[in-house]
Design a protein that fits this description.
Elements (H helix, E strand, L loop, with lengths): L3 E2 L6 E2 L13 E6 L5 H15 L4 E6 L6 H14 L6 E4 L4 E4 L5 E6 L3 H5 L6 E5 L6 H8 L11 E6 L7 H9 L5 E6 L9 H8 L1 H4 L1 H9 L17 H4 E2 L10 E6 L5 E10 L2 E10 L4 H11 L5 E5 L16 H8 L16 H14 L1 E5 L4 H9 L18 H13 L12
Parallel strand pairs: 3-9, 3-10, 4-7, 4-8, 8-9, 11-16, 12-15, 14-16
Antiparallel strand pairs: 1-2, 5-6, 6-7, 12-13, 13-14
Helix pairs in contact: 1-2, 10-11, 12-14, 13-14
Length: 427
Amino acid sequence: MKPQVSQQQKIRVNDAYLPLLGCRTRKLALYGGSGSGKSVFAAQKITLRTLTEIGHKFLCLRKVGETVKESIFAELKAAIADFGCLHEFDINKTEKAFLHRPTGNQIICKGLDEPEKIKSIKGITGMWVEETTEFTSDELDQLDLRIRGEKPNYIQYIYSFNPISEDNEIVKRFVIEKKDLDCTVLHTNHTHNFFLTENDRAVLYALKDRNPLFYDVYCLGIPGVVDKSGKFLYSFDSKNQVVKALPPEPNLPYWFTFDFNIDPMTVTVAQRPNLKQLNCLKSIQLNDSDIYAMCDRIRADYPNKHYLVTGDASGHNRTGVVRGKTSYWKVIKQELKLTDHQMKIRSINLGLIESRVLCNAVNGSTDIFLDEEGCAPLINDCKYAKVDDKGVLEKDRKKQKNDFLDGLRYLIDANYPDYLDKPKKYK
């Protein structure tokens, strides 16, 4: 079969998606593998409606604002260029918005972590929620309330995502249970995309032997069946990942990943020699201490080094536990004399289930090494940390605290934030 061409605007649309150009159900869920073209189609449909209908203000969302520019904003700009209509648009790169001058229609791209900006957007007529598995089901329900009343055209929410885990609540909602009313669901994978290169397909096929979970999700586009052993980091291989002596590389930046507990306060020290490798060098634990003492320790042990920091996003909000009732991250920035560029912290922590998928995917496909002596507490967490029957990390403040595992989770997320979106980038 060959790709067909829409007679409306002469754009290239894969066969699987062509019928959906006219789909008017309130919800349209596009799920499947990497390279299936689902995000491209979502951008195409939003663009087509912007060009051919009136009275529109489309809101296009990712969970985290910092991912918007390189994802949905770039995808929409590419779609507009394919239509040959860039000259008809005013494009605001700062606000990540498009204004179609002939119709007055708008497309606005935001992150859900920009709540005040989203609240200020009135008159939304349609929505695209990219990488929907990053959102909670409650968040989708709240977004569904944003569009009410009569509109000049039909209302539609487009959801696009990889089915990262059978345990993910969005995968359960749209793929397994399918309980949403007035909802069209389409499953695709790379075989439905006639424009994908053979090299891209080869990368996906190669996952079959190296990472079966990724092969299911990103090649076949079916829900990933997560290991049921009960271990959080089921991909951990102490024989190959624990190194007798892991010397630091003096010319590389040092990563410090913070987990904020009063007793103990913990930091994991690491370096990243290359795109596919993380070296965990030291687990620092200070009992009955505070953030100021931890910063003193870092300055003393690692003087005149280039610092990069990450860790628990809740450190943005904590008050009353540090001098001056400020936040942990403000103290760290001040005490270690950091720039904004050196601070790699999410505004909201990645969910524990998604974090487990990410950590095992990265750990199974890249090289993460731990110093046997320096990271003994972290090694213990990697070996023994367990999840409950819902896939959530179990913690026992008296026995298995898992503070250092939390640090590893934040470290992996900071270094591989788009791994589940773009696994080919790290091959």
